[in-house]
Design a protein that fits this description.
- Keywords: Cell membrane, Lipoprotein, Membrane, Methylation, Prenylation, Transducer.
- By secondary structure, the protein is an all-alpha fold.
- It has a domain at about 10-55: G Protein Gi Gamma 2 (Irregular).
- The protein is about 45% helix and about 0% strand.
- The chain has helices at about 10-25, 35-45, 50-55.
- The protein is flat.
Length: about 70
């Protein structure tokens, strides 16, 4: 998709783009926020055992683990 510089468009072109965007948005299915929050909460709780942010990274799989100590002589 080509990049469009909005500053180069006429007011009519901007209005047409806005109308087209609004036509797309009006077709989207809307959900209640409370329902979405419950689904997200259930999803997070179902996968909490696999979540490395909660559980941490095991020493064997940690790519940032120090390979050896630094010795200054």
């Amino acid at each position: 998709m080509p990049v469009i510089n909005v500053e180069d468009l006429t007011d009519k072109d901007k209005a047409v783009m806005e109308v087209n965007q609004l036509k797309l948005e009006v077709k989207l299915e809307r959900w209640l926020t409370s329902k979405c929050c419950e689904e997200i909460k259930e999803y997070i709780q179902a996968l909490v055992e696999e979540d490395t942010l909660v559980k941490g990274i095991s020493e064997e799989k940690n790519p940032f683990k120090e390979k050896g100590g630094c010795v200054i002589c």
